[in-house]
Amino acid sequence: MTASADFIAYVLEQLARLEDVSWRRMFGGAGLYSDGYFFGLISDDTLYLRVDDSNRADYTARGTAPFRPYADRPQLSTTYFATPAEVLEDAEQLVIWARRSLAVAVKAASRGRTAAPGKRPPAVGARGRPRRGAAGATRGKPQR
Could you point out which of 80, 112, 129, 142 has its C-alpha 20 to 30 Å from the C-alpha of 122? Predict the structure, then answer.
């Protein structure tokens, strides 16, 4: 999984009209976020956007493939599909598709499947108590 600086810059330029877009390196690729929600990723200079039943048909109708993180296990795929080239090259269309993917990410977070960065609950230990040093953890002896 790799993402060149030039391709990341191009995608960000195409998404300039999408609110609060940021990116982070991940495993040599890049994760795309809007308002803290993970809605897309870049791997091998291909943009993948998040899908569910509400937008998957847009991708499959154009023959794009799902992101498969493991070349030796092609049966494993994710909820991210490659963006069609004609959509990637049209900034207005790309923003529309990205907003749909963002809506999928927000919906998934509301179901508790993924959380936006900074909105995660504190880390908990095996007994359901906050870990020492975790946000919201108490210092000193536990209350009995």
Answer: 80
Coil, helix or strand at residue 41:
strand
- Check which CATH number belongs to the domain holding 82 and give it: 3.30.1460.30
Q: pLDDT digit string (tens) for 77-92?
A: 678 999 999 999 999 9
**Domain assignment of residue 52, given as a range:** 5-110
| Beta-carbon contacts of residue 123 (< 8 Å; ≥ 6 apart) | 130, 131, 134, 135
Higher model confidence: residue 75 or residue 7?
Answer: 7
In this prediction, residue 79 carries a pLDDT of 86
Whose structure tokens read 């995608």? Answer: 11
Asked if residue 142 belongs to a domain, the reply is no
Strand order, beta sheet including 29-34: 21-26, 29-34, 37-43, 46-50, 80-82
| Mean of per-residue pLDDT scores for the chain | 79
In our burial notation (b when 16+ CB lie closer than 10 A, e otherwise), range 81-102 reads bbbbeebbeeeeebbebbbbbb
Distance, in Å, from the CA atom of 67 to the CA atom of 23, rounded to the nearest integer, reads 18
